[in-house]
Design brief:
Helix content: 40-55%
Strand content: 15-25%
Structural class: alpha+beta
Order of helices and strands: HHHEEHEEE
CATH topology of the domain at 3-88: Arc Repressor Mutant, subunit A
CATH class of the domain at 3-88: Mainly Alpha
Shape: globular
Number of helices: 4
Length: about 130
Amino acid sequence: MNLKELDLQTLTIFCELHRRGSATEVAQKMGLSNSRVSRRLSVLRELFQDELFVRRNHTLVATGRAKDLLPLCQQMLDNFKQMAGLCTEPAQKAPSHSGRRAYVGYDIGGLFLSQPQTGLYSNSTSSGV
């Protein structure tokens, strides 16, 4: 499983498919081609090894697996929205004790710590997700 295939657009497509039940409506709402939505759904299907949505009466209906994934995907999108909100707010300056900075981030593999002055990079987890 390669979680690097997940991006903001793919997560949004997934949540919108669940909400709207129509790939055409999702494509129109997001300003994408129908084929783009279809390709991203194919990536999700392969990634999660499930159909995720099945067609019934001209509507895409979520499978049990898709229903399980929805709250997780929605939470990830909500986190992105919160981060975007922070991009528009001025940062509050934290007291500096040593004058050195370290940045903590998250990637698919886990947390990482970066110290720009030294170029050090340490990964706090060794899980190969």
